[in-house]
Amino acid sequence: MYLILTASSDTYITNKIIDNQFRATDANVGRAGTLDVFKLYNESKISGSSKPAELSRLLLKFDLSKLHELTSSNIDINASNFEAKLKLYDILGGQATPSNFKLVVYPLSRSFDEGIGRDVASFSDLDACNFITSSYSNGTSNLWHMTGAYAGGQLNSTDIDYISSGTLGSTLHDFGSVQTFPKGNEDLNINVTTILSATLAGQLPDRGLRISFSGSEETDSKTRFVKRFASRHSSNPFKVPQLHVSWDDSVVDHHGDFVFDLSGSVFLNNYHRGTSANILSGAASSQVTGQNCVILKLQKGDWKKFITGSQHTAGTDSTGVTGLYSASFAVSLSSTQKVNRQTQKLSDLVRVSGSIKFDEYWLSTDETVGYHTGSLEIIPAQRSSYSADPASLMFTFTNISDEYHVDDVIKLKVFIDDTAAKEKVYKTPYSKKSKVLSNLYYRVRNPDLGIVVVPFKKNNAGTRLSSDSSGMYFEFRVQNLPAGHVYVFDLLTTDYDSNRVYEDVSSRFKVIS
């Protein structure tokens, strides 16, 4: 799953000197179109300081409610494949840009108000937040513990503005995430997985993020002016501050590509009147749930194999997915069990037919109640004469629409045909099955602007397609895409020892608000 959250609040605070007379410490720029990070050293004059420094710091906040909703059913924030990236997009306005500097992100300990200020020239708009005040509530100004949100310290301290470190579980973490900008015109793309997962777990306060120059770069005698990012008030919806969250929620069912001697998983879905529901079993109609709650029996003649299956789980608390069961196992082609009275073994049948179709029975743990009867075809590993391109794949999105609403959550199905594969000859009409690929990924692109909005996410399988007995599918949340634009899905496959991108696989679709 790939989810993009846009900032719900953002601004920057500064103590910039105005007209060599005063510092704009009470200025607010919450409605400005840019987020400016800068440091000026001895560029202005002000009474009481021989070599004054002026600087700014960015503040951002994201609404995490949609992520909280998914932690009990989809997201496992403790999984190694859970990842969060903070992305800010550079704005080139013809101004000078510093180079070879670092920006660091920390979680905030105090809340801030965005404010309604717009003036980024004379900084004449007064509002909270600013360099002195973080927020305003119930007629009271809530001040930073140290001007400029400068007070850092350990988690659970009561006198800090941002959290520099803290103990999660039994491990001490440095919460600072750093990125180096060699040229200065790069976008910000920082991993904030630890910060986000701890926030979702309630271990860190959900107050937002602070971004500033790193370490001595705020206190040395060098000017860095100005690194400029688009704010959430930018007219370009593709460049507003974003939190890209991804994790592997794919369900890979190997009914369509189970291979001898390789471990695979098969799934069972249960529905009651069209709605996912747990299996009811026995005279008391008890729900079948939990670990080791079902038995999968494979049979071919006299050959039998029994596998213990469980309710599939998801989410941070490994909550059981209603009505979904799975079993993982391998079948050895070297099995010595006899299939029939002619003392044939599995390997003998494969030599004749090229594959074996087993009877598949899902049963109660005492094997007295049958839940489902089906079949599972298992094939040997694919071997052929050398070919640099053994597959010729064609993809079809079978249920894509021309238009979607930004709040839609859609399940898209993909039919795959390998035109290079040899087909069996049938004397009667038959329905062709989709190929199933274990490593197929999607991305979303705006073809008119040439912008990739959702990238291929292979490192944590964040955009990997799921599979079931009928083919490939994936769930997509349209909220990722700015409304009023046209998009298209591309696919990437790494199967057949090949890494190929297929563009414009789907038809174009428009997102409306």
Q: Could you describe the 3D structure shown?
A:
- With 513 residues, the protein is mainly β.
- The chain has three domains: 245 residues, no CATH class; 126 residues, Immunoglobulins (Immunoglobulin-like, Sandwich); 120 residues, Immunoglobulin-like (Sandwich), CATH 2.60.40.1930.
- The protein is built from three helices and 38 strands.
- The strands form nine sheets. Strands 1, 4, 5, 6, 7, 13, 14, 15, 16 and 17 form a ten-stranded antiparallel β-sheet that branches. Strands 18-28-27-24-25-26-19 form a seven-stranded mixed β-sheet. Strands 30, 32, 33, 36, 37 and 38 form a six-stranded mixed β-sheet that branches.
- Strand 24 and strand 25 form a beta hairpin.
Short summary:
The protein has 513 residues and is mostly beta strands. The strands form nine sheets. Strands 1, 4, 5, 6, 7, 13, 14, 15, 16 and 17 form a ten-stranded antiparallel beta sheet that branches.
The biggest sheet amounts to: 10 strands, antiparallel
- Stretches where pLDDT is under 50 for at least 5 consecutive residues are none
Compute the number of helices: 3
Number of strands: 38
Note the overall shape: elongated
Whole-number tally of structural domains: 3
Strand content: 35-45%
* Helical residues, percent: under 10%
Mean pLDDT, rounded to whole units?
A: 94
**Structural class given helices, strands, pairing?**
mainly beta
Work out the radius of gyration.
29 Å
> Cα distance, first to last residue?
22 Å
Which descriptors would you attach to this protein?
513 residues; mainly beta; Immunoglobulin-like; ten-stranded antiparallel β-sheet; 42% strand
